[in-house]
Hints:
By secondary structure, the chain is α+β, with helices and mostly antiparallel strands. The chain folds into three domains: 18-180, Ubiquitin-like (UB roll); 188-573, Creatine Kinase, Chain A, domain 2, CATH 3.30.590.10; 598-730, Four Helix Bundle (Hemerythrin (Met), subunit A). Helix content is 52%, strand content 12%. Strands 9, 10, 11, 12, 13, 14, 15, 16 and 17 form a nine-stranded mixed beta sheet that branches. A hairpin with a 4-residue loop joins strand 16 and strand 17. Helix 10 (263-278) crosses helix 11 and helix 25 (650-681) runs antiparallel to helix 27. The longest helix has 55 residues, at 585-639. It is globular and about 105 Å long. It starts with a helix and ends with a helix. 46% of the residues are buried.
Amino acid sequence: MSNLRFKALETLSFKDFRRDNAVKFPAKLSELFCQNVFSEETMRSYLTKEAFTSIQNAIKKGTKIQRDVADQIAVAMKDWALSKGVTHYTHWFQPLTGTTAEKHDSFFTPFESDRAIERFSGGMLIQQEPDASSFPNGGIRNTFEARGYTAWDPTSPAFILGTTLCIPSIFISYTGETLDYKAPLLRALSAVDEAATDICKSYFDKNVTKVTPTLGWEQEYFLVDSALYQSRPDLVITGKTLLGHSPAKGQQLDDHYFGSIPTRVMNFMKELEIKCMQLGIPVTTRHNEVAPNQYELAPMFEEVNVAVDHNSLLMDLMARVAHKHHFHILFHEKPFAGVNGSGKHNNWSLATDTGENLLSPGKNPKKNLQFLTFFVNTIKAVHDYADLLRASIASASNDYRLGANEAPPAIISAFIGTQLFGVLEELEKVTDGKLSPEEKTELKLNVVGKIPEILLDNTDRNRTSPFAFTGNKFEIRAVGSSANCAEVMTVMNAIVAKQLRDFKKEVDALIETGLKKDEAIFNVLREYIKVSKNIMFEGDGYSEEWAKEAKRRGLKNLKTTPEALSRELDQKFVDLYEELGIYSHREIEARNEIKLEKYSTMVSIEATVLADIARNHIVPCAINYQNRLIENVKGLKEIFGDQEFRTLAKEQMSMIAEISEHISIMKVGVEKLLAATKKAKAIEDSHKMAEAFCNEVKPLFNEIRNASDELEMLVDDELWPMTKYRELLFTR
Length: 732
């Protein structure tokens, strides 16, 4: 391994990445936008008026596409794809593995002994049948029941990747249960659209016919040289370093954040942006992040379903482009100890088909009351379903990041800014029942009316909050960098849909008692503010004081994935999903089972890899160096007298003893780790197994790591087998 390490470092010194990987950037990126997407403009060129109208109605109104029209769309899609050099098509879907999946079929169809054509029908467009036997299912189907179906999602445009036409699709079992992230997300989006549109039409704007949730994600990642990456078996297998002493310089000087982007990295970013433009991913921001070799890119806001698809596509695209530039991309939330990990902030809002952002104040009291309605209801939803939101971002890899100084704590709280908090405090004082003319005037002029100027100055962002209002959107900051955004977006839109439904019922009930519409709204909002105040927090989320204060407020601190997932099957959450038609009870239990199994599997893999590296790489290396020291001591003893020898060999003798001590710690630690892993694997109950891996297996990692890191500082650098942190983080 030491040879592999030094060969990788030596090869790097001979590479000219400025020349070899230079990227020619177009004068206008806009000219490339959607070149490889079956976009609305492309549809106009290839579809009949009937087919174009049908697919647009499906996208905007959710209407069904008739089979004969689907045939027309399929032919048009095929003709467009063939003009781009495409030979195959695939239903592109997002199973519960956390990555995307695809099965490629050719357009090629023989129809006589020596003749063939390219064929693609409506039936082939609408449905495909991949083998579902090896995808996670949580016990929904038996292993021998292999059949699963993918079904076209017309609301997300088809695109071309290489020579393959990719058709975004949902994935379901033979018996109809969902086996992916997209299907439940679409249901949640439909639910919040219906609930929000109902409120807009009933109370604020009769012209609103559709409300679209929007998402703007921020993707953080690390770039590591491919050769150096291949020299680290822990990175290759687990996506993170399990061992490694921190370098003298990490991120202490804050010199990487927003610093000049290295040329090699810039070449990667340029090519990535070109590919993104061609695939309709509207990326606009790129910069260095806090940790060395850590970066971020972000797009403009899009409709949630499309944004989720684009993020999943982007992660695949990033890995492909990185490989071309001799990089390996790391999406793990905490690939390196001692420096910041990576997240994926999800910026969420609601937009109407009349062009309004429902989480942005307007220019008159009515629009500001609309803003307050959706703002307070969102806070109330997060308050009532905080544990479900926490479970949606839980994973083995995100556990390493949450609660550290680069990520929010596991306690779900909301930051709204001191000025807006003051507005809510004023609303909390609203009279119960009918309002006097004076109180109405005061509310409209001095409370609700001042919201725009308050938000204008309310620009400070609390980076320690997991759920922060940032002017016209909510930022969910606890999502992990490797996560599929669909899971947290499904929860977010589901809980807001449920809350808006309840709000509408309560307001209508008060109106029936004789209260005017505005009075009823103020009365309900007042009660919501009182109930939800305990999750509003403006201070330092990293502090111990907040953890104590949160406990006093009754907020849960679910620090680990098993803790968070134990709350997911609470009857309140099951009822929510069933009421909205997002999941059946069986699907909820299956997904919980899948997540628990994945957690246990990931920790088990990390434990096995750590044991392997410790026994087969670190210990032999340490013994090798120790033997050199022993030979040195023997030589000194032969040359010098006893008294002089003891003085001259003192440090070597001390190092020999110290190395033996660390080797012993590692050997005992590995034996304990493997025994604990074996014991945990034998547990049949998935939740108890996950708890065992969390509480009995993971804590043993540090003992082995600490001993290895101490040996790294003792052993000759030329003998050390593992590429060091300073090389991984500062080789560009």
